[in-house]
């Protein structure tokens, strides 16, 4: 949601059956406009461009992160592309196998090789849950936690990573980042983690609200 009457969404083209980003305006009349050239097709234009759309409320920057490749797209609310940036994973081409059915639908044949799971943006940073084990990461640690990689969205720069460890059998389902905290849904609980200075020092558009701490 951009404001009370404007929305940006990912939808499917009635002509090509491929995924595309679109703007949805309620005023002065209900209107949907497709932007078919933002998501770049590699295989089928559906599964290979699947991803997460999020917004950074500090400056209303839109970010689309591909699930199956190492790229995210930074845009303004009019869906003008500011830049295309990469995550630290090396998967540039989606590792998926697709079959096109007779009715035009697409079916994924094998379990997907997912690169990015979910992401949120806050004050010029992208917090991205990586779904692949790092080169120097132990398998035991990777199995016991979710990894959040942090990137700048104004230029190509990886700032570091942190772990959200499982709690008994519960794993992170979703998360949200504010100025001071990272809130995590895990099982039937909401957990709060303090954002350290080595991350928050990279925040852009700092304001008075950032200096407040709510306990």
Q: What structural category arises from helix and sheet content?
A: mainly beta
Strands of the widest sheet, in order across it, are 4-5-6-7
Please give the radius of gyration in angstroms. 18 Å
- Fraction in helix: under 10%
Low-confidence stretches: 207-215
Number of helices: 2
Strand content: 35-45%
What characterizes the major β-sheet?
4 strands, antiparallel
- Strand tally is 16
Q: Which whole number gives the mean pLDDT? A: 89
Q: Give the N-terminus to C-terminus distance in angstroms.
A: 29 Å
What does it look like?
The chain has 215 residues and is mainly β. 5% of the residues lie in helices and 44% in strands. The chain has two helices and 16 strands. The protein has helices at residues 139-144, 197-200; strands at 6-12, 19-25, 31-35, 51-56, 61-66, 71-75, 81-86, 98-100, 106-108, 116-122, 125-130, 145-152, 158-165, 172-177, 181-186, 189-194. Strand 4 and strand 5 form a beta hairpin. The longest helix is centred in the middle third of the chain and has 6 residues, at 139-144. Residues 207-215 have low confidence and may be disordered.
Summed up:
The protein is mainly beta and 215 residues long. It is built from two helices and 16 strands.
How do the helices and strands line up, and which of them pair or pack?
Blueprint: E1 6-12, E2 19-25, E3 31-35, E4 51-56, E5 61-66, E6 71-75, E7 81-86, E8 98-100, E9 106-108, E10 116-122, E11 125-130, H1 139-144, E12 145-152, E13 158-165, E14 172-177, E15 181-186, E16 189-194, H2 197-200
Antiparallel strand pairs: 1-2, 2-3, 4-5, 5-6, 6-7, 8-9, 10-11, 11-12, 12-13, 14-15, 15-16
